[in-house]
Amino acid sequence: MSTDVRAICAIGLRGQLGLHGRMPWEGERGRVFREDVARFFEITRGHVLLAGPRTIASVPEFARQDRTVAVIRSSERPEEVLARYAGRVVFIGGGPAVWEVYAPHIRHWDINRLPYDGDADRWFDPQWLVKGGAARGRP
User: 133 pLDDT exceeds 80?
Assistant: First the structure.
């Protein structure tokens, strides 16, 4: 039984992902930003969310009750981590360091573009999309 590995993220208009360890639009109160957060929690409900320690620390307590949430470490081999969740849908969250390592295993990217066009120090790399399972011919 294989693991259905997916990634979910929001990016700014030019591919912005992060700024000083946070999402650059964090704290924005506009409808589209609130809807993005709600969408994230709806899509991952009932599934597994794997991410680095900083991202997992930001997951609110209510969200831990209806999804499996686990920290992944750079010292762990992705194949071994994913094998723990065989037959499940696993969402890889986080940022560039995580997606760089897990991209070859990701078969579906759920990317939501937000109307943010400000500063960033972390960017989405389109090359992650072609490293994934779908690009290698997996269904």
Answer: no
